[in-house]
Amino acid sequence: MSEAVTQADKPPVVDNGPRDLFSKFDDTIRMRETLLASGVEDPFSLVMEKVLSPTRAICNGRDTILLGTYNYMGMTFDPDVIQAGKDALDNFGAGTTGSRVLNGTYQGHKECEQALMDFYAMDHAMVFSTGYQANLGIISTIAGKGDYVVLDIDSHASIWDGCAMGNAEIVPFKHNDIDAMEKRLRRIPEGAGKLVVLEGVYSMMGDVAPLKEMVAVAKKCGAMVLVDEAHSMGFIGEHGRGVAEEQGVIDDVDFIIGTFSKSVGTVGGFCVSNHPKFEIMRLVCRPYVFTASLPPSVVATAATSIRKLMHGSNKRAHLWENSRRLHGGLKELGFTLGTDSPQSAIVAVIMPDLERGAGMWEALLSEGLYVNLARPPATPANMTLLRCSLCAEHSEAQVETILGMFERAGKAVGII
Amino acid sequence: MDRAAVDSTIRSLIEPFNKKAVAVEDSTTFAGDLEFDSLTVMDFVAAIEDEFDIIISMNQQAEIESYGQLVDAVTKLQGE
């Protein structure tokens, strides 16, 4: 706009034809070209040619241990889960071709929602086609014009996009800072609706939120509370209900958002709640209404998996052993980690910069190990991270093999 | 607090964030002239919010591009 003021009414003569709408991506294109020019294997176009188990696949032609899949409980190859999916394919077909509020609600969708209500011991459950849509839909719908959403600055993209899609006033606070959150809540004009959005486990660093204190403060300030428990379902808390359960505040949480694409082992998202008017969401929440529902096979695998997760305490214990061993082992080797102690099944290894991070990622891949390379802007403080997520199906021996791979790769790249 | 007083308070708050000691005028922009990234913006906004006991929501921040606009917005907000 400022440019326009200094220019005549006549449109400027353009040498290179009309303005290319893609020119805004030039910086990203350049960053990617620079990275690939260094000869590194492209970290963002890996192909898994064959998946052998929840922990092993053939990636770009190599037999690879998977340590970056969020498949925490290893349910993707559970025989009961697979059988449920096959039966649903046979009996209900490949897809619903319809919205949940029209022709897209099958028996299986209701059974899946019942499994969630039983799992969380809550009155209402609503299944979305993805976890992203669950956050997008719930946040943008319940916080309207004149309301305030107070959220952690390190919130997941789906939470930010839910904020951007709605009409509420958006007020972020410093990551996990109880005091900063309280100050902002107290400054909100009297009478305004308030929604506090938190996550149980933050997926970039693998750290846990002080939900006990934060939920108490939010309630004291008269706010409703939404907690995204995507990275804790199935293994944190006595019944695997997440960080809010473990810290004893689940009864004060108004909405829990979760996903089927992590511990549950398929795809889909959900919101569970005890709010007496919750069911109206099915009619007013656009990302729920204006999209096709999940295929019958997906809700059947999800429901079976959720019910099995209720009895997963042995697997849960093994997942924690794996997380502690990997965290302790990497620390001993001299890597810088996202958290001082293991707080979840995510272990984030902090890289000095994107170039060496990509080098380390490639060195690990040629050792036969897949981890996630996370880079700005998805990461807090513009860090480059190698994010490892453990699985209950990783054997003790695999974890030792992984540590050996990290040691060799780290020395080769000069990080340790 | 009148506009001049708000100006002088924000001027002192901005100092630790103005790493390249850019001369700050009303037309100075945060993204362009001061090269603030999103993290710097968050810390700077938090400092102002705490000093004046106000909220500057992200919706309001989106309208503020220059130093002068910020001083105007804070003057208005703390008067409310």
UniProtKB/TrEMBL annotation, chain A:
PROSITE patterns, A to Z: AA_TRANSFER_CLASS_2
Which residues does UniProt assign to the signal peptide? none
Q: Which SUPFAM superfamilies match?
A: PLP-dependent transferases (SSF53383)
Q: Which organism is it from?
A: Alteraurantiacibacter aestuarii
The Swiss-Prot or TrEMBL record describes its family as follows: Belongs to the class-II pyridoxal-phosphate-dependent aminotransferase family.
Q: Which UniProt keywords apply?
A: Aminotransferase, Pyridoxal phosphate, Transferase
Q: Supply one GO molecular-function term.
A: pyridoxal phosphate binding
Q: Where is the Aminotransferase class I/classII large domain?
A: 63-403
Q: Which NCBIfam families match?
A: SerpalmtaseAlphaP, SerpalmtaseBetaP
Query: Which InterPro entries has this protein been placed in?
Result: Aminotrans_II_pyridoxalP_BS, Aminotransferase_I/II_large, AON_synthase_class-II, PyrdxlP-dep_Trfase, PyrdxlP-dep_Trfase_major, PyrdxlP-dep_Trfase_small
- Give cofactor(s), names only: pyridoxal 5'-phosphate
**Listed name of the protein:** Aminotransferase class I/II-fold pyridoxal phosphate-dependent enzyme
From TrEMBL, chain B:
Q: Where is the Carrier domain?
A: 1-78
Pfam families, alphabetized? PP-binding (PF00550)
Highest taxon above the source species? Bacteria
Q: Which SUPFAM superfamilies match?
A: ACP-like
Q: What is this protein called?
A: Acyl carrier protein
Supply the source organism for this entry: Alteraurantiacibacter aestuarii
